[in-house]
Amino acid sequence: MSDFLNISGLHARIDADGAPKEILRGVDLIIAPGEVHAIMGPNGSGKSTLSYVLAGREDYEVTSGSVSFKGQDLLAMEPEERAAAGVFLAFQAPIELPGVNNANFLRTAVNAVRRARGDAELDAVAFLKTVRAATKKLSMSDEMLKRNVNVGFSGGEKKRNEVLQMTMLQPSLAILDETDSGLDVDALRIVADGVNALRSPTFSALVITHHQRLLDYLNPDRVHVMARGRIVHSGGAELAKEIDVQGYASFLAEAA
């Protein structure tokens, strides 16, 4: 089976107070179609930076390395091209969009991706039928569709809204940057169910988390430990339980 996402020797930096700061220092990672991988690691290890680089955030400069996604050079694509190709990023801290209706935002995003993929756009009736079915599965009120994007939402509501976007956009690669942060048990299960509902031979996910509890619901194919800007250790789902008990000290020693 061919590689779905292939990250090789990835180095990236960001301008910090007028001076470049290297954050990614040689990330190597391969995800096959249909696989769910998790990345864990201490704060400041580069986990979120990796997600931003994959999504195309312009603040970060790739200085060397490559990323192949479904046989294409992901780094050569603009962010909107990556989205059309099937890349979705769920943010750790979703931003508010005052004045932007949630339903209109979703329909615009869904139809933009459908156009790029050569699919017919959803009219208002078809969209509402689809989105209401999705909100019901996520235990979300239809009232959230009438509100502005994330404005006045609780932390849990923002994360559910991210999962709703993922459900509607049907990506082939979902990157979840600590989407479980600040969630109670019920909301955590809803996030996990949203990912599991999309699992198929043509869908893969990269889940960045500090919490082994989320991985109990997801049962990832591989778990990776990131430290000092690179992946220093990989293993099966049991690795998350080991980290939960022992912490990261031994892995930091590997990264030294």
From TrEMBL:
GO molecular function ontology, one term from the record: ATP binding
Gene from which the chain derives: sufC
Record-stated family: Belongs to the ABC transporter superfamily. Ycf16 family.
Swiss-Prot/TrEMBL keywords: ATP-binding, Nucleotide-binding
Source organism superkingdom: Bacteria
Limits of the ABC transporter domain: 5-253
SMART domains: AAA (SM00382)
Protein name: ABC transporter ATP-binding protein
Pfam family of the protein (one): ABC_tran
SUPFAM superfamilies attached to this UniProt entry: P-loop containing nucleoside triphosphate hydrolases
CDD domains per the UniProt record, alphabetical: ABC_FeS_Assembly
